[in-house]
């Protein structure tokens, strides 16, 4: 079973989006960052998607507060 999609407190570089996605999909944060950087070479709204995920994926501390 996959982990809940949250932005963890550890392994953050900017906002923790890549670390959260890596944790959710069972890979390393470094691999997820490389995938994101390679995707930025393609045309499209990757940066806007990152900003949207930053806004909509809850931070680990906020997710744990709402869980009780």
Automatic annotation (TrEMBL):
Record's keyword terms, sorted: Cell membrane, Membrane, Transmembrane, Transmembrane helix
Name of the protein described by the UniProt record: PspC domain protein
Places the protein is found: Cell membrane
Ranges where the Phage shock protein PspC N-terminal domain occurs: 5-60
Top-level taxon of the source organism: Bacteria
PANTHER family: PHAGE SHOCK PROTEIN C (PTHR33885:SF3)
Primary residence: membrane
Pfam families: PspC (PF04024)
Record flagged with keyword Oxidoreductase: no
Key word Membrane present: yes
Membrane-spanning ranges: 34-57
Membrane topology summary: Single-pass membrane protein
